[in-house]
Amino acid sequence: MPYTARYKGLLxxxxxxxxxxxxxxVSLGSVEIPLKDIFSILFTKGTNQESWQYIILEYRxxxxxxxxxxxxxxAVSGLLMQTLFRNPLxxxxxxxxxxxxxxxxxxxxxxxxxxxxxxxxxxxxxxxLVIASSLGSLLVLLAVLMASAKLRDTxxxxxxxxMFASLTAAVVSVLAYFSPAEQLQQYIFxxxxxxxNLSWQExxxxxxxxxxxxxxxxxxxxxxxxxxxxxxxARSLGVKISTNRFIIIxxxxxxxxxxxxxxxPIAFVGLAVPHxxxxxxxxxxxxxxxxxxxxxxxxxxxxxxxxxxLPGTEYTLPINAITSLVGAPVVIWLLIRKRKFIF
Amino acid sequence: xxxxxxxxxxxLNKSGDTCIAAAINIEIEEGELVGLIGVNGVGKSTLLxxxxxxxxxxxxxxxxxxxxxxxxxxxxxxxxxxxxxxxQPISKNLSxxxxxxxGRQPYTNWIGSLSKEDRNKIQTAVExxxxxxxxDKRCFELSDGQLxxxxxxxxxxxxxxxxILDEPTTHLDMYHQAYVxxxxxxxxxxxxxxxLFATHEINLALQLCDKIIIMEKDKVTAGSPKxxxxxxxxxxxxxxxxxxxxxxxxxxxIRT
Lengths: 343, 256
What we know:
heterodimer; A: mainly alpha; ABC transporter involved in vitamin B12 uptake, BtuC; 14 helices; 76% helix; 0% strand; B: alpha/beta; Rossmann fold; six-stranded mixed β-sheet; 12 strands; 30% helix; transport (chain A); membrane (chain A)
């Protein structure tokens, strides 16, 4: 293919942008630290200012890695879902994973008072939120997998995911109605999403899940390409449709589930990045699309995080709001620009 | 060679199987162009799906190149039969060359890289169907006739001894119907592949096919066009109130 060389160049460019944005991200924040010192903290012996060293190594750097893993992971799950369902509006959360996570977290936060003060203190620790949201996603995932084993029609899984989302949203509203304002606020803060509160230990757990999800996605590349022809053609080309569907769902769940557990629900990145990348690299070959989407997701997330810090101020806006503010106009712009949404 | 003996096709249900057609006996030889005709809903597509291994059949046996269809793995099957389907859920954003290249999937490595041989086969397919000029277009830019040719090229790239097409002439004008069917005829002659296609263009099929399979509600008849005409096999396909088969002109005529 004549385009391959150009695509490889673009991939390299995207990768360089990831590094660049990561550096910009590290250098910005509510405390001003001179670039010279940042570089010496990152790459050489460090600096005399211990507080700076702490801010960079224990706060900003884990946040940069979290942004990279979340952005790229969500973007990959978006791509997987869009190809599996052959639906341009599919995203990482169409399987209902984030709704499951929300339900788990809502039960822990807003139900904590029911279990008494001692239990509440334990339940509201950070790990219990992570565990609750993982369990929530896992439950929904199991339900979706059971449904997918029973159903021949892939589209039905999409609808089942949407139904789970409505169901859990309803349960969350009921819980919210009976909750005191303080706990409601805590839940809402969780739903804003956050990249900044992860320790290195948590980042490495996220990294393991990310890696597993990406490896599975890489092994699906060939079949993903075949799926572009539709399931019947794919079957005639020797693709085992249900096995393949199972692996794609597992990969998506590993990525979206672990990201939601650690960073909360983050909207639009998964939906928008694959479309943005197709604008830059007009190919359908997942060999190119997958790495491109990984880099693209990381870049978008790093940029959103920079925007969320409101450079020059002490405020940090909720990351989920920023990604939606960026993502929604992008999707609208794509629709208007192409007039026809060919997928 | 593909053969079906005492084949029953239909759907497997928990409450009992739904049989659509039974006691089907068909033989298709190497290099034959075979047309499958019958009224809407008689089970042509089901028969094609059963023969191509996409759908399980109820009873009887299908053998391909002396191997039982059920014993073939999905990879072996993909190297034996390629299909062109009526439904078009394909991503229209695919370029023509990408789409044709996907025909090589059964032969490529785990990540789907094309080898030199793969590229050659793709090029041969493009030349056989004569769509060199369309290679860089995207599918949404193509007319129905062009898309049909591209889908046939994809099946050719899959490099299988059998090609099965489900109504390849739907949505095409008379010229392109003739074009596509002549193309199929040419392919059977030049590549010695066996091609089976379902069609409603009986008049065209009669002129081009080596063999015709007529599917009726309770029986399936097969034979060369000449034999079938002599046996009056065409007179009962359709209700006789509107059209009839005219032996002289070898075509269906409207009753006046």
